[in-house]
Design goal:
Layout lengths: L11 H15 L4 H131 L2 H18 L1
Helix pairs in contact: 2-3
Length: about 180
């Protein structure tokens, strides 16, 4: 028979304590230490994730705010652009109306210039005809003066001679001269 080994039944808590003490003396981590480290790492990771979540939520809020602000700006810009387009359309219509009015006035000015040229030409022609008429009137007055002088001479000669022959001739001359003048 040999040596019999006796086994003692230790309570589980004592057994775990002894095992942890042995592992600790040998430099091994105990199961509890490993669990504590894992828990610590998990809690740290959870804190990191919570922090990252907060940062991402903050960024999301910022992004939403920027998007909302950009959307508002886009709406305002679109409204301003519509107003600008409407104003440009009005200005374009006004420009077209002014251009049409300008063309109409230009045509009217051209007509006035043409009329003025015609009137100036007619005025020059009228002046020329008036000058010619003045020249003819002066010639007629000169001829009339000559004829009156001749008539006076003939009357004087007739009154001196007293003859009827001269009187008949002078009447004929007077009639023929008056026909020349008119």
């Amino acid at each position: 028979m040999g040596v019999e080994t006796v086994q003692f039944a230790l309570p589980a808590e004592l057994d775990a304590y002894m095992q942890d003490s042995i592992f600790h003396m040998l430099g091994f981590c105990t199961y509890e230490d490993r669990l504590k480290k894992k828990l610590s790492r998990a809690e740290e990771s959870q804190r990191d994730l919570a922090l990252q979540l907060q940062q991402m939520q903050f960024r999301l809020r910022e992004s939403d705010h920027k998007r909302a602000k950009s959307k508002e700006e886009a709406v305002l810009n679109a409204q301003a652009l519509k107003r600008q387009v409407a104003e440009n359309q009005k200005l374009l219509e006004q420009c077209r109306a002014l251009k049409d009015e300008c063309n109409r006035l230009e045509q009217e000015c051209n007509l006035y210039h043409n009329d003025r040229d015609v009137f100036m030409e007619a005025a020059y022609e009228a002046e020329d005809r008036a000058a010619e008429a003045d020249d003819r009137a002066m010639e007629a007055e000169a001829k009339n003066a000559i004829l009156e002088a001749e008539l006076d001479q003939m009357r004087l000669a007739l009154s001196i001679d007293g003859g009827k022959i001269w009187m008949g001739v002078s009447d004929l001359k007077l009639r023929s001269y008056s026909q020349l003048l008119w």
